[in-house]
Every structure is written in C-alpha cells, then in structure tokens.
Specification:
The complex is a heterodimer of chains A (about 160) and B (about 775).
Chain A: E1 3-7, E2 10-14, H1 22-29, E3 48-51, E4 54-57, E5 70-72, H2 77-85, H3 94-101, H4 111-124, H5 130-137, H6 147-161
Parallel strand pairs in A: 1-5
Antiparallel strand pairs in A: 1-2, 3-4, 3-5
Helix pairs in contact in A: 3-6
Chain B: H1 3-9, H2 21-25, H3 29-34, H4 45-49, E1 69-71, E2 77-81, H5 90-102, E3 109-113, H6 130-157, E4 164-167, E5 170-173, E6 181-182, H7 183-187, E7 198-199, E8 208-209, H8 232-235, E9 252-257, E10 266-269, E11 277-281, E12 284-289, H9 292-301, E13 304-306, H10 318-324, E14 329-336, H11 339-345, E15 348-356, E16 368-374, E17 377-382, H12 387-398, E18 405-409, H13 421-435, E19 439-442, H14 445-451, E20 458-466, E21 472-481, E22 486-488, H15 490-494, E23 500-502, E24 517-524, H16 548-566, H17 570-577, H18 581-593, E25 612-623, E26 626-637, E27 643-653, H19 660-679, E28 708-714, H20 732-744, H21 755-767
Parallel strand pairs in B: 2-3, 9-19, 17-18, 21-24, 27-28
Antiparallel strand pairs in B: 1-2, 4-5, 5-6, 7-8, 9-12, 10-13, 11-12, 14-24, 15-20, 16-17, 16-19, 20-21, 22-23, 25-26, 26-27
Helix pairs in contact in B: 5-6, 12-13, 16-20
Classes of the chains: A alpha+beta (about 160), B alpha+beta (about 775).
Chain lengths: ~160, ~775
Amino acid sequence: MAITINVNGGRHSTAVAPGTPLLYVLRDEMKLRGPKFGCGLAQCGACSVLLGNDEIRSCVTPVAAVPGQRVTTLEGLPALHANQRGTSAAALHPLQQAWIDEQVPQCGYCQNGMIIQAAALLAHSPRPSDAQIKAAMNAHLCRCGTYNAIVRAIKRAAKAMA
Amino acid sequence: MTSSSLNENVASSFTEKAFTRADFLKGGGALIVAIGLPAAAWPSGASAAGAAPASWPNEVDPAKLDSWLAIHADGTVTAFTGKMENHQGNRTALAQIVAEELDVPVANIRMLMGDTARTVDQGPTVGSLTIRLAGPQLRQAAASGRQALLALAATRLGVPASNLGVKDGVVRPVGDTSRQVSYAELVGGRLLGVSIPVRGSGRGFGLVLGGAQPKAASEYTIVGQSPPRIDIPGMVTGQHFYIQDVRLPGMLHGRVIRPTGLGSQLLSHGKPSHGARVVRLNNFLGVVAEREWDAIQAARDLDVKWSNWAGLPTMDKLYSYIRDTPSLEDAVVSSTGDAGKALANAAHSVNATYTTPIQTHGSIGPSCAVADVKDGSATVWSGTQGPNDVRAAVADALDFPLERVRIITYDASGNYGRNGADMATVDAALMSQLVGRPVRVQWSRQDEHGWDPKGPATVHWLRCGLDAQRNIVGWDHQAWIPAFFETTVIGSVLAGRTTRLPSIHLWEDPILYNIPASRQLAHYQGDIGSAQNNGVGLISAWVRSPVQLQATFASESFFDELAAAAGADPVDLRLRGMKDQRMAAVLQAATRAANWQTRPSPGPAARAASRVARGRGVATSLRGGTYNAAVANVEVDRKTGRISVTHVVVAQENGLTINPRAVKLGIEAGVVQTVGRTLFEQVTFDRSNVTSLDWHGYPIIRFKDTPTVEVILLDNPGVPATGSGEPSVNPIAPAIGNAVFDATGVRIRSLPMRPSWVRAAFAQAERGTQRVAVGS
C-alpha cells in the first residue's frame, strides 16, 4: 500500500515497505541530496531533516512514521522560512547565507545536519548563547572540525533573523 | 575542424559517443553536472558512460596545453587537474592561480578534477602537496595559455604582444581602449594546440612545466586574496555533488560482507533475504539488490559462516608487539655528528618512551563507489585521493589492461588520508564485473570503522645527553613505525586477486635545534598481524600528517622534558637553539599572541591544592617547508583525570598564501580535529579484528570539547607556497601534553590522553615511578 509523505511542501507517494527509513525515500526516490547517509545509527546527524520544527534522524525514522507531518530537508529550508515569515521565498535560508558568509564547510558532508539542527534550535530559541548552541548541536559530528565556524554562523543567522 | 579530428588532437581525448570534446569546449551544461559544480539536476552517469567497448589513453599528455585548459565560447575557462578538492579549498585556490595568470575573474574558472581520461596525472592528493607542487604546474600552464592567447591577439589587433594588456579575459593595447578582443573571440570553443616543455612525471610528484614566464608575486591581484570557496554554496543547499550521489541507469545497490577475523575463510552462506542476490568470489562476499534498503537488510540478515582467525596481538601488548617484531627495514632518517658517542660521554642522560595508538580516518560519509563494468571495460566513479593509483588497482583486480579502465572522481566526505575510498572502488568494480550490471557499493558505518586502512600505532624511544652545564650534546630518536611501502586492497585479497596501492612511509620531523650530535632511526615494520596472515594484517594507511603527528608528539614532548630538567622556560630553550629564523619568527608570533609568561614548567598550578589545575604548553613543527608553532591552554581535573583544552593559538608561515581566509579556516578546523585525536581517538581490537565499529566505540571531538582557536598566518609572499592541510596539526598533541605537565607536573607519554590513562599517570607519579627529571 502506498504511503504518502509531505516533503518540502509537496506530496510524494512511495511503495516501499513501511519500515524503510525515510532517508532512502528522500535520496533514492525523491533524488534529494541534502540529507546524507552517515551511520544508519542516529549517531552522527548527517541525515537530519525537520519533522515539523524538530530535527529527526531520517536514517532510523521509518517512512511510515511521518505521514501527516511536514518534512523539510535542506533543499526546503528557504521556502519554509518564507512561509513562516509570510514573505516570498529567497534563494537561501538565513542559515545557509550565514554558512556561506562564514565559509563554514571543509568537506561539507555533515553540514546538512548542522544546518537542519541549527534551524530547529533557532525555531525554539531565537538568540542562543554560545553555550546553548554547543549544547543543542552536540549530537552532530564533524570530522573536519568546523565546530567553531558553525557557532559563528548560527550567531550570524540569529542576528539576521531577529 | 570536425569533432572526430578534434578528438584525435586532444591529449585527453575522450572517446564517448555521447560527448565530443567540441561539445565540451562550447560549455555544454551537461558536463557541468559531470564535473561536480552545483546543478539542479540529478546526475545521469549514462551520458558519461557512453557505449562500450571503451578505452582511454594510458596517460593524459602534460605537454599539451589543451590537457590543462579549455577556453569556452562563452568566455568561461575550464582548468583540468588530476588533484582532488580534499576539503580545505584546493578547488578554489587552484582556480585563483589560473585566474591570476590568465587575468580572468575567478567566477569564470571551472575546475575539472580527477578524471583519468581527461586530467593529467599530478600525483595523488596527499601530503599537503597540491598547492606546493600542482599549483606551480597549473600556474605555468595558465601562463602558457596567456602567452598563446596574447600571440593570437597580437595578430588580430596588429599590435605586438608586449604592448597588450588583459583585464577580465579581454585583451586591449596598453593605453588604447578603442580596440579589444576577448579570449572567447580568439579561441572560444577551439583547441589552443600549443605544446609546453615538460620534464619529470606527475606520478612521482616530479612534473615540472616550463615555457612562459608567470607573473611575479608582486603583481598578484587574485592570488593572496580571499574569494569565497566556489563549492560552498552547493554544499549548504544540497546541490554539491558527492560520490555518494552518483546513480546510473540500471544500477544495483551493493553491500559488502566482510570476514569476522582478518584472516577468516568463508565456509558457507545461506540464501539472501529481501530479493537480493549474493555476489561471491572466494572470500569476497556481498549482496546486490534493486533497492538500497533491501541490500542493507539482506547484508545484515545473510547467514554466513567464517572460520576463526585470531592472529592479532592483544591490545595491552600492542606496543611491546610493535617494538619486539623484527622490522622490515631500518633506516637512518637523519644524522649529525656521532650521537652514540655523545650519549655515551654525556654527564647526564634522559630517556623516555612515547606511544601513539591506532587511529581511523573516521569519515562521516562511509566510502562509496559506482562501477560500470561491461564488454571488457570499466568506468568507475570514485571518491579516491589518487585516481591514477586506483585505476591501476582496478585494472589489476579485474585483469583488464590499464586503457580499459577509467576513474572519474567526485568529492568525498572528509577522508584525511587513505580511508575506505580506494577499497570501495575496487569492491564496486569486482561486484559489477561479477553481476554484469552497474553496481553502487556503499560501505556501512561498520565497514568504514572496521575496514578503512588504519593509521598505525607507533613507538618512540628518545634519549638525550646533557653536559655538566645542562646543554644538550646528543639526541637519539628511534621510532618503530608500522609503516608500509604499499597499501593492500582488501577486496582484491578476499577475491583472490591481490593488488596493492603505492604508499609512502616518510618520517619527516626535522630536528629544529642546534644539537651537535643527533640521529633519527626508523624501524619500519609490516602491518600488525601480517605475519600471521600471509602478509595481510590490519591494513594501514596514515591519517592526516603521516608519521609526523606521532613523531612530533614524541620529540616536542621530550624536548619539553629537557627544558623542565634544565629548569628553563620551554620557549626560551627552544629559541636559544633554534636553527631557522623563520621557525623562530613563528614561535614568537604564537607565544606573543598567547601572552606567554616566561617561567619553567611545571607552573604554580602543579603545586596548588585545587582540584582543577591550569597550564600552558608550547610546541613547534616544520613539515614540507611549512612552519608552525602552537600554544595550548588546558584545564586538568585531578580527580577525574579529564583534560579540557580551552584555547589554542597556532601560528603558521607557508611562504606565499593563495587564499588566506581559506587557509586560516582550514587550520582552525584541523586544530580542533587534532585536539580530538589527542584526547579521545583510539581504535580498539581483539585477537580477530577491529572492535570499535561506530561513533560510540570510536569517539571523536564534539562541540562541547572544542577549544577556541586563534590562527596567526605570517605573510611571506616572496617564498613559493608550501602546503597547509597537514602541517599545523603536528604541534597540537605535544602542546597539549606539555600544558598538562605545566599544570600538574605529570608527563603524559601516551595518546590518547583519556581520563583513565591520565589518572593512571597521576598514580604512577605519586608512587614515584614516573621519571620526570634527569637521572638513570
């Protein structure tokens, strides 16, 4: 039986087994490249997406668990932001712009999860302190070591969104 | 000129029917996808795979300018390089170098990186050699391009080339704005057809291009500036193309199933679940399925029986095993005077043993490759650092001639050395050959943690002789380096088609101080367990900064021991004997920024009663011509043994800097990574195999552990650029260890500095069994 999910404002029907992790539907069927496979164990955060305003690990979330809720991937952040602000969509979410302004990535592979988690953080806590940022982001791993640049970018985006 | 004759004239000719070189020169959008620039479309490998049987030249000819540059009809330029991005900004920095020589905006340069059919072999992207060695190659090619274009413009405008100037790809007579011709108008979409004098080979990093005179550094307007990295917008929007994103029509998803023990034999397997097929060749085992999740479940569920194998030493015996195993080769790395005699005649002697653990590359994205093997040829998409090396390995494993293999690279997750990328590339090629369809092999987290080649453990024995005035008169550093001359490709071994990749085992840790007699002696060894398994043990490949991260931890910590023994300030003692003024300037810059207080270590905190002790430590390093010094501040919890690195200042001088902002950000990130390697990282194993198979078993640094980092980049544009990816990681571990000593008076001689080990070192010091002063 087909499962219909709501991703980035659009609907997608899939015939995969209900236990299939959302990640494989996003990447293999919907051809979205923002969410990445990192561990399949919910340990690293490379696969993160927003479910509503909360960050989830799509590598361990069965696709059958998300119908009826809004899934937003890295690709959908600009439109989500525009909807929430009632403005027309810009090319970039303020976090994406801040990531460019701060030149955050090294290899870039983990940054999907970092930006998604930062979006969830700012949705709940618009002006976080450094300590709040580090606590909120601590379950995301970056092998390259870009953590300080990420903190700077989140603060920059928070300012831009204020 | 027809496209077929065009193809024949192109060194990097590509024989696919889907694309001609002429299409490419016109700047077709499809190729932009293929070269990994941001694009909205999901890539189709079909267009690049073309019709079989395909063959490709053994080598792209470096002596043809068209192998390096293509000037498109729309005024954009593609620069071809055999180098990879490798995460710190090579793509952008090389584009800056080309843009500078051609006088075109960086935004108009596209970089096509790492395709064995289209890019010159400039050697693998390792050892911080890209800007240092490939940078001058591209600079020279671009200078030749500019010269060729100016010659054409001179004819067109009737003005001698020496009287022409270029701005943004438009040529005008100097002082005359009435006439102009653009690069695009001169050659857009056509070949340049120019030869460049070359000597040496890229394979041995010795390729040198001659010909036109490049600009002087004093003329630079693009090099030395900090334009944003060209790949970052794609990375933050999900558009950047990674190797994990490659999909081919008709492709199967493959998963490997590795042995339980390094030397286990496959005894039997059951029937696969989830509609998957088993793929097997001797001990090489995997599954393929139409859907990725089915392949994952089938690999997980397959009932497989392996023979027992237990040929590894136990973990607690690792360092004695390394030291006691006969070495493959002993080599004197450096020698000054007679170190043995100086030590024998010294008034005092000090010695210490340092150890460093096995570490893993720990890529966040496990290795992945896609192979299409059919009709006797193989096109393989890879995240390798060395496309030409892995091309030879694939040819070997498939038993194909080299010209029937093409490797096309895409950016990979940060690898920091030879992670599983090359291994997965051979896995995919083998699977595709076995099943007769394109196969994408995605390693699992457990595959990557378990089977990426491991950064080897090392043991260092240092001895120093002092005269009656406590001057250093002799220095001897012996290192047991489980180094390797080749890296074995695991899939090929399992398949019974063993092939090996070239590797390096360079111990580079120059002695920075004036010591009358010194020696560095390397005991090079095979992979651990290899003697118990036909030469294939725990396969090794260095993690970021081969040998030096380990050797400098030992040597710069030991130097600190000497300073403490002499009652000298660690910076003063270093500066007193420093041979090289560039090194001294970097050390002074770091210590000035860190507000270094001159006094011996240990400091006052070591005598205080408080639970948390604070201290600072310093270390220096020189690697590949790049100078670094670091000062680390730490807090040590005496009760728990927990070390917090609170702040690190690191200074660097690397001659000319192409993109200072990218360099500083790369250093900052590398320092953070290395703090984690110093404090946390250690591969665990039992007698059979690696047991640290995920991020719980192999913790790396997280946000909460991250120190603030101040980077000081010393400008020295008159000196040719040296590398930046590896050098600054080298002084970090000793600076931290020296800071712990400063805080507590206890010397940590073993990495990682985990709390339990730190507590053990405290206990040892209290019992008086830790030698911290002159003696013996």
